[in-house]
Design goal:
About 75% of the residues lie in helices and about 0% in strands. By secondary structure, it is an all-alpha fold.
Length: about 270
């Protein structure tokens, strides 16, 4: 993505990429969420019903990913003109894009994760019940920590992704095929996922709302203190294996689908 990408091309390509990865790899995400759950993996559902909550994921994946890539490509064009460092421009663009995408992503995650751990059985039950009990802002539980997780994740991932693509392109002296861009996304995503796992654990706990005894979490600091005290520091890295696996495989599917869709949309619009 070294060249400028039109807004609507990025929007449509992002939507295709989001749906592709979220639906294809949903069971791994469910396993990761249950490993991070305060009641423990098996009490949260174990390996049963691993597609529980997929309706919420599917509903939010297309608009969330579309908004991310449209914001990223638009932001990258702007920041490339105002920041001399390419990596700095990519970090700034990714930060802007993640913040925008979280407006859609967080309500989706709240509903999805509560369905994954058995709190609700359907999205149609979950959404009105959360609003009734917690207000509209209940759908945005964990918004701050989600942004705090996504910004460092993308600030690490995208410069690595862009740098790897550029190096590979220069080495072969030809534009990359979609599968090559996908490989770059997979490596960059897996590394970023491992580094930011503790933030993901905090986000999951805040979105689930309470510990195994039903005592509500009051914020990020409260989660960290209680998890370390009650479950040990290692719990802050719970779910790292499925998280890295999901994002590594997902990165390949996500960036591959994005680059392939972008290529075909660009060709179609140029005819």
């Amino acid at each position: 993505m070294s060249e400028d990408v039109p807004f609507f091309t990025a929007l449509a390509s992002g939507a295709v990429a989001g749906v592709s990865v979220d639906v294809a790899l949903y069971p791994i995400d469910t396993i990761k969420t249950r490993m991070q759950s305060p009641q423990g993996f098996f009490k949260a559902g174990g390996f049963n019903g691993v597609y529980r909550g997929i309706t919420a994921a599917a509903a939010g994946s297309a608009p969330g990913a579309a908004l991310f890539f449209a914001s990223y490509e638009t932001g990258k064009t702007f920041f490339n003109k105002n920041i001399s460092s390419p990596a700095g421009a990519q970090m700034a663009a990714a930060t802007f894009a993640e913040t925008m995408a979280c407006l859609v992503r967080v309500p989706t995650e709240v509903v999805k994760q509560r369905m994954q751990t058995g709190v609700y059985t359907s999205m149609l039950v979950a959404v009105p019940d959360i609003i009734k009990k917690e207000g509209v802002m209940g759908l945005y539980s964990g918004f701050g920590i989600t942004v705090m997780r996504e910004i460092p994740f993308s600030a690490i991932q995208f410069p690595i992704y862009e740098r790897m693509k550029l190096a590979w392109k220069n080495a072969q002296d030809a534009p990359l095929a979609p599968w090559q861009a996908a490989a770059c996304g997979s490596i960059a995503g897996g590394f970023s996922a491992a580094v930011t796992t503790p933030l993901d654990v905090i986000k999951t706990r805040l979105m689930l709302g309470a510990d195994a005894e039903g005592v509500k979490y009051t914020g990020t600091v409260d989660v960290v203190q209680r998890v370390i005290k009650d479950e040990g520091a290692k719990k802050m890295f719970s779910g790292i294996q499925p998280r890295v696996m999901w994002i590594s495989i997902g990165g390949f599917v996500f960036f591959g689908a994005y680059e392939n869709a972008r290529k075909h949309i660009t060709m179609a619009t140029e005819k």
